[in-house]
Amino acid sequence: MRSLPLPLTLTARLSPVVVLAVAGWTLTSDPGPTAGDEPAAKGATQSASAPATAAASKTYTASPAPCEGVATATVKSLVPGAKTAGKEIPSTDTELRRTCSWNALKGYDYRWLDVSYEITDTDEDAEKAYKNRLEQKSGGGDVPGLGDQAYSVVNLTTEDKQQTREGEVYVQVSNALVVITYNGSDFESKKAPSTDVVNKGAIKAAKDAVAALEGGAKS
User: Fold this and answer.
1) Is domain 62-215 in CATH 2.60.120, yes or no?
2) Residue 153 in contact with residue 140, Cβ under 8 Å?
């Protein structure tokens, strides 16, 4: 079989820097009152206990190991020929933000799967991050019964007559955001897998990733 060059859009995905840049995550935190702050006379006794209450309500304090977030059987099904162990993308803070990738070219069929976790300070922060992602998308729809709220979207791109279809799933689970990216191309026919195949595959990976998060350590 002759070797075939990957389209530029797929080649770019092989760079961890690009993967992290696409994620575009920004964590927010509340430093709380400083020692010099004068509490209001009314409710001053409550201010001391507020930070402890907020900390206690944080469901997830760290990201799970992302390469263990998808079942081996799912990886084999979605990314034939890939190493099931996956490859974790470097992160500046592995407790709060972690990503794992699987990709393989089997024959002429190429598949890529990303699983990412982001742990925020509060449920409100995770919901805000979730909504920000959706504002950048068009089409797609809700995925019922997955996390607190979930959304999936599939898009088709064509470069040099080569089609690539990519599905994304976003899931908010308490103070965590789970993001799945799944795409594929056929370099012989230059076609892409169907919308149904890509969408179902991305949702399957999302269900695995959410189960891994919910089954992990909580605060």
Assistant:
1) yes
2) yes
Q: Tell me which DSSP letter residue 7 carries.
A: P
Name the band, by pLDDT with cuts 50, 70 and 90, for residue 138. confident
Distance CA 50, CA 127 (A): 21
Kindly report whether the global pTM for this prediction surpasses the value 0.85.
no
| Distance, C-alpha 179 to centroid of its chain | 2
Find all residues with CB under 8 Å of 31, minimum gap 6, and list them: none
- Helix count and strand count (H, E) for the chain: 7, 7
The residues spanned by each domain of the chain are 62-215
Beta-bridge mates of residue 119: 176
Residue type (1 letter), 118: E
Q: Are 97 and 90 in contact (CB under 8 A)?
A: no
68-107: per-residue pLDDT in tens?
Answer: 999 999 999 999 999 999 999 998 888 889 999 999 999 9
What is the C-alpha to C-alpha distance for residues 65 and 6, in angstroms, rounded to an integer? 29
Q: How many CB atoms lie within 10 A of CB 94?
A: 13
